[in-house]
Amino acid sequence: MSITLLDLTLKELGISQKELAKKIWVSPSAISRWRRSGIIPAESKDHLIDLIGVHPSDEHLACFFMGVQNAERWKNIVFFLIYKSMNNDWKNAIKQSDFSDTVMSPGRLLSKIVEAGSSSGLVFEPVMDSALANLADLLEYGEQGSDDEALNVIEGNCQARFIRKVIETMADHYFFYRMVITPYLTSCRFRFDDDGYASFSGCFEDLMFDASFYTVLCEYGFCGSYRLDSRIKAAGSIGKINSMLKELREYLDDRKIEVKLDFQKCFGYKPSKQLVEIAKKEFFPG
């Protein structure tokens, strides 16, 4: 059974239908009626979204994410991109078991799905067609077509900058972006102030640092006070940025400064304890 927005709200908040009814100013019978019909009035849906921060178009995505939460981190991203870009016929034709190959690289997996779908006459939604083709090349070969930009490669030959760009083309998929991409890629976060300094917060555990973080991390919230020299803002190579991030890590290690991930800032709302544990286990193992 799919997870609806109503189910997700009850699960996230850990409250009864009666308690939820009070929070969104409706009668308990109304919620029972929504459960039976699967239809929630627009105004009430907005209240539910406000409570847990989930976009209504992402109800099915929440279910899909739960189904693959134990898969490899980057394969989750590939699953998401494939799934969201399929038309309905394609979604119905492909079973989740098709995604279960743990040996195949994400790039080969994506290429296989693209090829299989195309040979069956099924096509990607137009908005994602070229983006996914580029992503397949990127995951498979570590490059993006003829792009001569420095390759900002992160774990699994995934380019954070490109993946962020792909996901940002799907504005209404913010829930997945916040649940999966943001907590992992911004587990070390930087933000530049007007003077060109960067403030930092995050967790260094099990992370690879490279230039991809430079483009992704500087735009998110921060807590903590370690300030990097403004050289990082002007650094033009992966080597220079890596060197500075190494200095930062050594600075923290030498002073035994433990920096913890702030899930409140990452998720944008206070997630349930269960969700936090899932995220920690999935994205920050060890």
From TrEMBL:
Residues 11-34 form the HTH cro/C1-type domain. One of its GO terms (molecular function) is DNA binding. Coiled coil: none annotated. It comes from the Bacteria. InterPro entries: Cro/C1-type_HTH, Lambda_DNA-bd_dom_sf. Gene3D superfamilies: lambda repressor-like DNA-binding domains (1.10.260.40). CDD domains: HTH_XRE. This is HTH cro/C1-type domain-containing protein. It comes from Aeromonas veronii.
